Amino acid sequence: MKKSDFFELKEIFESHDNILILTHKSPDGDTLGCGFALCAYLRDIGKKANVINNENFPVRYNFLYDGYYVQDFEPQFIVAVDVADKSLFGSHLTRYMEEGAVDVCIDHHISNRGYAKRTFLDGKASAAALILFEYFKTIGYKISDFIAMCLYTAIATDTGCFKYQNTTPKTHIAAAELMQYDIGFEHINRKMFDVKSKGRIKVEQSVINNMEYYFNDRCTMIVITTELMNNCGAEPAEFEGLASIPLEIEGVVIGITVKQRHENVFKLSVRTTEEVDASAFCRRFGGGGHIRAAGCEIQGNLQEVRQIVIKAVAEALGEEYDD
Ligand SMILES: [Mn+2]
């Protein structure tokens, strides 16, 4: 993004009020970190602003909304952060999926559909929060410790604690700058990456026990059915972010997580090594995302979905497969 883009964004924020910030469904650290950082900034410059999500904000991220309170106003300007497609607002926020409903989108997904009137997109940024951070620096806004904490959390989570392929020197430089604030980064990283609830361990245990292997163990698949979710006695949030597990196994180049949404609707999360383009894989099913991490939705019963996916994996790996 160019310097002039950031000044245009500044002009946009300064000339509007009563701003509603939309985050994506099944929110992650980036969308929430951006949401609450942007909200704190807007309130600081004298605007009314709220952050909303399709669901309640997950408890896991409670340190991001600790001091947050809802302001009373009729939204006049809508900003989406880290949301690649308007369908990702979720079933409770369909009113924002209408044509022209979103004024500004700040995002880093190359697959962004351009649904907003004005999109500020940097496909090279490892987190949407990096765009925000660059924005604050460019316009000379002095961020608070709280905003730094939100941005750091967003960047750390979207890069898997600075491990994923999307991590760049720029990511580390930004993190280093943010560490100069009082953010307690070690607590953030412990909470985000090391600590697991008892329910979560149970979920992982079950998922690992039932892992499916295909094509000489180059592909692994885990399936999370509603039945499993009900039987584990774990909170829905404890089923988030399991998608990295299938790729943890040595030799696996494509790891697939199939999660039941409804009776005959399954959400796919695809993670790959450099041999497979996850984004291209998911695009065949109307989804998208990043080159190493992408998602899509497939309809059918579990057996049908499994067949469809294995067939697509066979093609992606150049393997023979008869169904
Ligand atoms: Mn993101």
Question: What does the model show?
Answer:
The structure is a single chain. This protein is an alpha/beta fold and 323 residues long. The protein folds into two domains: 3-193, inorganic pyrophosphatase (n-terminal core); 198-317, Diaminopimelate Epimerase, Chain A, domain 1 (Roll), CATH 3.10.310.30. It has helices at 3-14, 29-44, 128-139, 145-158, 169-179, 185-194, 198-209, 226-232, 278-283, 302-317; strands at residues 19-22, 49-52, 77-81, 104-107, 118-121, 212-214, 219-224, 254-262, 265-272, 288-289, 293-299. The strands form two sheets. It has a six-stranded mixed beta sheet. Strand 1 (19-22), helix 2 (29-44) and strand 2 form a beta-alpha-beta unit. Helix 2 runs antiparallel to helix 4, helix 3 runs antiparallel to helix 4 and helix 4 packs parallel to helix 6. The mean pLDDT is 95. Bound molecules: manganese (II) ion. The site of manganese (II) ion has 6 residues, from loops.
Topology record:
Layout (H helix, E strand, L loop, with lengths): L2 H12 L4 E4 L6 H16 L4 E4 L24 E5 L22 E4 L10 E4 L6 H12 L5 H14 L10 H11 L5 H10 L3 H12 L2 E3 L4 E6 L1 H7 L21 E9 L2 E8 L5 H6 L4 E2 L3 E7 L2 H16 L6
The structure holds manganese (II) ion.
